[in-house]
Specification:
3 domains
């Protein structure tokens, strides 16, 4: 205490400072102890009765499962790309118009059907029904939305209706 008196410091201040530092260290120790206990509990849940060797086996198995999932995902993506490619050549847009071709009393038994791909390639199929002369069926090729033969008014109507329909969109990867 003589040393502190020579410097001019009261010893009770030092005791109080050391007491505060001690209390802070006790609080830090308690916080670290609770954190360590939580980590120990988490580790025991993670390990769940397993030793290091069985844990390694479980991890290897999970990595193998992840690799298989990745392989299947890549295969599925390739299949989707192939489906999207083939899908462009499938008939996606259509329209049908029924009418009375010969203005008879037979009703609206005549019709025109148009089937188009996404690129507006396809056909117009027309069936003209007559009660007295029978039934006539015609098919006309459509390339890029245009017919290179003369179309009737009903065939033009069915072609325009089909062209304005929305085609099915591609599946996104």
């Amino acid at each position: 205490m003589e040393l502190f008196e020579k410097i001019g410091i009261d010893g009770s201040y030092i005791v109080i400072a050391l007491l505060i530092i001690n209390l802070i260290l006790i609080a830090i120790t308690m916080v670290l102890y609770t954190r360590q206990k939580k980590m120990k509990n988490n580790l025991s849940v993670f390990m769940n009765g397993k030793d290091a060797e069985s844990l390694e086996d479980a991890m290897v198995e999970k990595f193998a499962e992840i690799n298989e999932i990745n392989r299947l995902g890549k295969a599925s993506a390739q299949e989707i790309r192939e489906i999207n490619t083939k899908h462009k050549f499938a008939f996606q847009k259509y329209s049908i118009v029924k009418y009375d071709a010969f203005k008879e009393m037979g009703g609206k038994l005549s019709f025109s059907v148009c089937m188009l791909t996404d690129n507006n390639d396809g056909f117009v199929l027309t069936s003209m029904h007559s009660t007295s002369e029978g039934c006539y069926v015609y098919i006309k090729e459509i390339i890029a939305g245009e017919a290179y033969v003369l179309l009737s008014e009903e065939e033009k109507k069915v072609l325009n209706e089909a062209k304005t329909r929305h085609s099915v969109t591609e599946i996104e990867l």
